[in-house]
Amino acid sequence: MNTTEIFLIAMILIFAVPWLIWRVGRTEYYAPLVVVQILTGILLGPGVLGQIFPDYYNFVFTPPVIQSLNGIAWWAVMIFVMIAGIELDLKKAWVHRRESGITAGLALGTPLLFGGGAALVMLLTDGWLGAHGERWQFVLGVGMACAVTALPILILFMEKLEVLRQPVGQRILRYASVDDIAIWGVLALILMDWSRVGKQLVFLIAFIVIGWLFRKLMAWLSERDRWYVALIWLAVCGFGADWAGLHFMVGAFLAGAVMEAEWFDQERMDLLRHHVLLVVMPVFFLSTGLRTNWTLGGEAVFVAAALLLVASVAGKLIGVRIAGRILNWAPGEASIIGWLLQTKALIMIIFANILLDREIITSEAFTALLLMAVASTMLTVPMVAPKLARLRELIGRSA
Questions:
Q1: 173/155 Cα distance (integer angstroms)
Q2: How many CA atoms lie within 13 A of 20 on its CB side?
Q3: CA 191 to chain centre
Q4: 147 and 112 in contact (C-beta within 8 Å)?
Q5: How does 265-284 read in b/e, with b if 16+ C-beta sit within 10 Å?
Q6: How many other C-beta atoms can be found within 10 angstroms of the C-beta atom of residue 127?
Q7: Residue 356: which of 343, 345, 367, 372 has the closest Cα?
Q8: What burial class does residue 286 get, using C-beta atoms within 10 Å of its C-beta: 0-12 exposed, 13-18 middle, 19+ buried?
Q9: In whole angstroms, what is the distance from residue 370 CA to residue 246 CA?
Q10: What's the mean pLDDT when you consider all of the chain?
């Protein structure tokens, strides 16, 4: 078979296998299609089916096919991250800055500390720190991975739970938006390359100047033109950030963050996010799965994943509970908010991919982080749904 035919076989696997598992297994309650696609990527990768059926793996995932898949995956995830940047609503967070600052700070800072502690434990044994990583980068990177909240997936979950348009849903969006800014800021710090600091300074200055001009241009353009120009801007920012050594994902987030959500029709933006998730993001999930590795042994990777999961869940819940005490929240709110902010999935996987690209973590550490992200995301809806039902019942009785 030629490369095109093998590529299409890979695409059949990418779209057919997770859909069949999701639909036939009816996994929506605890594992939405997005989560199933991530798990399928791991199963189809070298660590599972690649070990069981090496001939299958070597036949389908040849270097030319993997290169083609990676190109699609890069562009898909850049669009997705740009949309996440556009949907940040920091204006409302500023209006409620005391509440948002306290909650976002504790919801991010506490799991960051717990995750950093877990990273230090991992560093007691070899095999986790990447070839070009410093210990402080590993600890900060893994700690931040434990603290991440995936805003786009959080929105999908809150829509499903029918809380997105309610006051508590809007509050959670504010907290997650503030944390998103901090996450990308910390990532930029981790990726700071002092040998290329001149390039990075040039990029940041150019971004501020050109970004100001870009905003003027976008305000002047009609909405139809804005969609197209936004994609050009995305490619420019991605190139600039990667050229400066900050990684193209940082550029993608910055590209979206300087745009106003009001410039675009919200319904069309929701459709774009949906279509990106439907059409091209499954390729990213598979390419992520192809990077998993179990060289240290499955047991060590699973132990590390369990340690990271405990640090992530405990840190997030404790941090939000402290915020609830300080701000006098209603009984039960802290637990619901803490579990919803636990949603990691895409953003943490993107974050971990960047750490792996820069060789700050090894593929074994990446696999442990990936398993932690999937587990924490799968826990969200089963933990939140009954708590929401009880809270609504109490509100109904008091009314």
A1: 8
A2: 7
A3: 17
A4: yes
A5: eeeebeebbeebbeebbbbb
A6: 16
A7: 367
A8: buried
A9: 22
A10: 85
> What's the pLDDT band for 218 if we cut at 50, 70, 90?
very high
Task: End-to-end CA distance of the chain: give it in Å, rounded.
Answer: 68
Residue located via tokens 């990418």: 14
Cα angle 241, 244, 245; round to 5 = 90
Amino acid identity at 287: S
Instruction: Report the distance separating Cα 151 and Cα 83, nearest Å.
Output: 10
CA distance 222 to 257: 20
List, as one string, the DSSP characters of 75-104. Answer: HHHHHHHHHHHHT--HHHHHHTHHHHHHHH
Closest CA to 99 of 338, 280, 328: 328
- d(Cα 264, Cα 280) in Å, to the nearest integer? 22
Question: What per-residue string of b and e applies to 351-379 under the rule 16 or more CB within 10 Å gives b?
Answer: bbbbbbbbebbbbbbbbbbbbbbbbbbbb
Q: Is 361 helix (H, G, I), strand (E, B) or coil?
A: strand
Whether residue 334 is predicted with pLDDT greater than 80 in this model: the reply is yes
**Element holding 315 (H helix, E strand):** helix 298-327
* Distance, CA of 277 to CA of 44 (rounded, Å): 19
For residue 361, list its beta bridge partners: 129
Q: Which residues contact 116 (CB under 8 A, 6 or more apart)?
A: 139, 140, 142, 143
Q: Tell the residue number behind the tokens 């560093």, with chain if given.
A: 123
The yes-or-no verdict on residue 208 having pLDDT over 80 is yes
Instruction: Residue 144: name the closest of 357, 301, 350, 371 by CA.
Output: 350
**Confidence band for 184, pLDDT divided at 50, 70 and 90:** confident
Cα distances (angstroms) measured from residue 377 to each of 182, 305, 330: 20, 13, 25
Helix ranges (H only) for 192-297 are 197-220, 223-243, 248-257, 266-279, 281-289
